[in-house]
Design a protein that fits this description.
Blueprint (H helix, E strand, L loop, with lengths): L14 H15 L8 H15 L4 H8 L8 H8 L10 H19 L4 E7 L6 H14 L5 E9 L2 H9 L1 E3 L1 H4 L12 E3 L4 E3 L2 H4 L2 E5 L12 E6 L8 H14 E9 L12 E5 L2 E4 L2
Parallel strand pairs: 1-2, 1-7, 2-6, 7-8
Antiparallel strand pairs: 3-5, 4-5, 8-10, 9-10
Helix pairs in contact: 1-4, 2-4, 5-6
The chain binds S-adenosylmethionine.
Length: 283
């Protein structure tokens, strides 16, 4: 247990300490901290130093070297993850879901409570799965002859709590295109000026912690996997291993969405590029 202290924190980070942090973050999350991101990592570690009441990053790293630090690893990962996201980010994926995916799935599966499954595989604070839920509710409506669910996972437990709460600063919604904003069916603002996503949409989503480089408990199959803006943090072998597991969980004819600056680590025999960062699983 670490005793809180109130001495000013020292944010210097030695080569050895940086190497230790980079090693732990790579081993436990697959995230590569590249050299130009070291300053950012330092800032984030400094926040953790403050929370623990330590004096310096050096002291924090000394703690990370002890056996007692295993409980701190999830907190370290939470501290270094980049959680930037937005509602309907990279809109073309949501347009594809609306126009090309859901109508076909409804036609195939309605009438016998057929399953439709979407996975948001690095969901951050929830904007991505709530956007998928909003589009899906709009297209599917409340029909009871379909079993529709979204799985939303992330490694970062703090951000998942925020996602599950589904409360966001109201001004975040003001910037949305006029045709999309009403789909989130926001419920009134609280005293902190936050609007809440409608319960009806929240019920469509299960938020769970899942580390993409560890074992996955789900069996699938999924019709759509969102894996956006997380591959950028991984190296090629990590991406390739995850990609194989996505393909195994994707329904033939299902879709994988990557982020705008991402591509497959190498061509995959069962994935065909059919649109901007949209890959279809071939039979
Ligand atoms: C930049 S956000 C992307 C959010 C959303 N997909 C989007 O595109 O807007 C990246 C997310 O990946 C998560 N992440 C990083 N490494 C992960 C891992 N090994 N397993 C699961 N999630 C991870 C981070 O916690 C973070 O929330």
């Amino acid at each position: 247990m670490l005793a809180p202290q109130s001495v000013q924190s020292d944010t210097a980070l030695s080569r050895d300490d940086m190497a230790l942090v980079a090693k732990l973050v790579y081993e436990h999350a697959g995230i590569v901290i590249r050299e130009h991101k070291e300053a950012m990592a330092r800032g984030r570690l400094a926040r953790r130093v403050k929370v623990l009441g330590l004096n310096s990053i050096a002291e924090y790293c000394a703690y990370l070297r002890t056996a007692a630090a295993s409980d701190e690893i999830p907190e370290l990962i939470n501290a270094v993850t980049t959680n930037h996201t937005a509602f309907f980010r990279e809109r073309h994926h949501f347009d594809h879901l609306r126009k090309d995916v859901l109508p076909r799935l409804i036609q195939e599966r309605a009438g016998r409570r057929g399953r439709i499954r979407i996975w948001s595989a690095a969901c951050s604070s929830g904007e991505e799965p709530y956007s998928a839920a909003a589009i899906s509710r709009d297209v599917i409506g409340h029909r009871s002859d379909l079993d529709f669910k979204i799985l939303a996972t992330d490694i970062d437990t703090d951000i998942l709590d925020r996602a599950a709460a589904g409360q966001y600063p109201a001004e975040q919604f003001d910037r949305l295109p006029a045709d999309l904003r009403p789909l989130l069916r926001l419920e009134g603002q609280n005293s902190r000026g936050e609007a809440r996503i409608a319960e009806d949409l929240k019920r469509l989503i299960a938020f769970k912690r899942l580390n993409l480089i560890e074992r996955w408990p789900m069996k699938g199959p999924f019709d759509v996997i969102f894996c956006r803006n997380v591959f950028i943090y991984f190296d090629t072998p990590t991406k390739a291993a995850i990609l194989d597991r996505y393909v195994a969980l994707l329904q033939p004819g299902g879709f994988l969405y990557l982020g705008h600056s991402e591509s497959l680590p190498q061509p995959h025999p069962q994935l065909r590029l059919i649109g901007r960062t949209i890959y279809e699983r071939t039979p």
